[in-house]
Specification:
about 280 residues; alpha/beta; Rossmann fold; 2 domains; two-stranded antiparallel ribbon; about 20% strand
Amino acid sequence: MPRKLDNKFSWKNATFMAKLSKFAYSGEKEFKKVFSKQWEDITFVSKGGTECYILTCPKNYIVVFRGTEPTSWEDIKADIQFTKQEKTYATNSVGLKAHGKMHKGFRAALEDVWKILHKHYKQNGVGKQLLVTGHSLGAALATLYADRIADISSACYTFGSPRVGDKKLIDNMNFTCYRIRNNNDIVTRVPPEWIGYTHKSDELLYFDVDGIPRYGFSRRFMFMQWLKGKRVFPRWKLIAMVLIGVWVGFMLALENYIFAIIWGLLGIWELSKKS
């Protein structure tokens, strides 16, 4: 029988959640082969392109969402439908409607399996410690699932999560989210903030270019790393900075000084901020 997992962050829990998220890509047979020795009760749910696994024991209830499969049109469609949709479902026991808008594609992907997941949780998960996890698209679905289940004691571990909704949506989410990302992962920067998207992140763990885990993120840290001569930007950021520099130079050549300054400042802001 597996040990009880609580909702407080630990690297041991995070490592286990990362392992679950990794093997969620491997298919039902391989996933159960890896985890069935400790978790006898594993349920696989698949509908409309959305896949997830539910692991249960007397004290824990864990939901793992698979991320994007490049060959799956349903996954790609979920990723690219980033127009925002009003949140309309009840988020707590008294049925109050929360404010905010979420990614339309992510919501539709969760909706495919929601009835099955909700029924299973009511029958097997109530009163247990709920943990939710996933990578990439799976991380986005894990975030929306935790929000919709509305268990305030639940914890969500996300790996390389894209942004899922606007600030109102995030502010109304009532669960703990541990967001873990890698320095070179561009997925964590989409959809962009300038169209109103933001992250759910109660605690950010950030792996820098050297693979060293760090808590939180700040421009001061980036600046100090630069002063020490360390490469703090991944290659895609360096390429983007060059392109922005060329565009700023073009604006200056046309004597559009205001636009050049604006583009330069926006570029520095976007490339140095947390993601």
